[in-house]
Amino acid sequence: xxxxxxxxxxxxxxxxxxxxxxxxxxxxxxxxxxxxxxxxxxxxxxxxxxxxxxxxxxxxxxxxxxxxxxxxxxxxxxxxxxxxxxxxxxxxxxxxxxxxxxxxxxxxxxxxxxxxxxxxxxxxxxxxxxxxxxxxxxxxxxxxxxxxxxxxxxxxxxxxxxxxxxxxxxxxxxxxxxxxxxxxxxxxxxxxxxxxxxxxxxxxxxxxxxxxxxxxxxxxxxxxxxxxxxxxxxxxxxxxxxxxxxxxxxxxxxxxxxxxxxxxxxxxxxxxxxxxxxxxxxxxxxxxxxxxxxxxxxxxxxxxxxxxxxxxxxxxxxxxxxxxxxxxxxxxxxxxxxxxxxxxxxxxxxxxxxxxxxxxxxxxxxxxxxxxxxxxxxxxxxxxxxxxxxxxxxxxxxxxxxxxxxxxxxxxxxxxxxxxxxxxxxxxxxxxxxxx
Length: 436
What we know:
Elements: H1 5-49, H2 57-74, H3 99-111, H4 119-137, H5 141-160, H6 163-177, H7 185-205, H8 230-261, H9 265-287, H10 302-307, H11 311-331, H12 338-355, H13 361-377, H14 380-391, H15 395-415, H16 419-434
Helix pairs in contact: 1-4, 1-5, 1-7, 2-3, 2-9, 3-4, 4-5, 5-6, 5-7, 6-7, 6-14, 8-11, 8-12, 8-13, 8-15, 9-11, 11-12, 12-13, 13-14, 13-15, 14-15
């Protein structure tokens, strides 16, 4: 680093980013703990107090509808609950005051059973705390922008157990946005990478603290897969294409729901909550499986999905959770779009392994994760890295499957754009013409 004012300012930003990672990571763990506690009280403690072995059907329908009312109230506060999950993962700076609506809206959504993930509110939490830090140390200019963005890095790392996936995810999102010149991306993201690294120390340190809970994405032990087979590769390409098509279709359906919410957002939120509850109740009545498989973001239920031995149950789960995901995405609930897409991808992959001759479960799951992640966010590199980290000892042998699955999903997602994708494309095409 040259001994120039700019160089010294950048080193100062790196130092502050390292310090920022610690409180942001701890705040992220506290928010995940709060979500866990709300889920426990609403879905375990209250049914137990009422003497139910499982939540009654009317309770399962009522609770997500109540979430619709709570979210409708939260979005009236400053910040309006943050951006819609239909817009992907936003990393634009937010004022700290916006957290007063973003966090309650996400807590109501995630705690009361809607089908979204915690990644978006955690990014917002990191951005808000980064903005607080900038004000406290009175930093301005580019350094302030980098430090705020570093907060998002540290928060996202809480979900994926470390800085690697967070770095790849925000790298791809930033590169696709075009807001930072290519030659400056590494310099712009390094403070965030440092913050995620120091935040990982916090995750390790509090892992065994009683009362704290982290929502890490993890798979159960999978059957060993020691060498790639051409049969698996061929089937996985088809499975990835099917999963990507399902996820894109869900997003199109969600945009249709979003168009209805313009005229009556409160009505649509409540109706969507009722719809999600009904889907969970119908799934339980038909399959005798718990409503948890349909409700929530899905990462906690992955072991049960992988262990499910009935392809019929899994296909019904893909349909029910897919519809619930579309309602949650489009109605105006607040959360992240990534984890439900992964859960749907895993369920479809396990079902395919049950019915397709010669398809091994382990590479099928790798294809499901890579395709689901890529189809919802268009981040194939992040999808492959995430798949490799989740597959454990089989990561090397399933790597070709993950890469081709991610590429297949990216092609399908690009070929079947949503209305939002078309709008962004038009804006990008119009920008050069408007620049002069």
